[in-house]
Amino acid sequence: MLSPQTIASDCKSKSWKIKLLYDGACPLCLREVNFLKSKDGDRGLVKFVDIAADDYQPADNAGIDFKTAMGRIHAVLPDDTILQNVEVFRQIYDLLGIGWIYAITRLPLVGRLADAIYGVWADYRLLLTGRADLQTLITEREQRLAACQDNCVINAEINYTIILAITDRQTS
């Protein structure tokens, strides 16, 4: 089902400069996202896309499917360029004016080391946060989406209509 937040964010202008794909079911990922949202404020420079949401669509995110997105952090630029790993953080932090935090990772040796450390974290992230393995999450997601397909489409259409009505009232 499309969440009201997803629909409302799509109704806003496309002013984002980078789209961050994050796992909204990961507690540590959410801490980082909340920090980044606080730094972005109302500027809308970063579009935050929860890959764990039932309405996540690869077609809207440079073709990055759920399994791929869950394996490593990804971001998408407006021209559909895909970023991965520590480069995602470098670019977002730069955009938000706090690039100095990741500046040292621009040095080739440090950058490779940072990517290697991130790779280990990404490989064990689900286990370390007490979640099921990736294949189980994929299977559960597929079953959930298949079970709600008809109902979710109807609910999404109703939610979209409600959001449009609210948006129209606010702009009048």
UniProtKB/TrEMBL annotation:
Top-level taxon of the source organism: Bacteria
One term of GO molecular function: protein-disulfide reductase activity
InterPro entries (alphabetical): DCC1-like, DCC1_Trx
Name of protein: DUF393 domain-containing protein
Protein source organism: Pseudanabaena catenata USMAC16
Upper lineage: Bacteria, Bacillati, Cyanobacteriota, Cyanophyceae, Pseudanabaenales
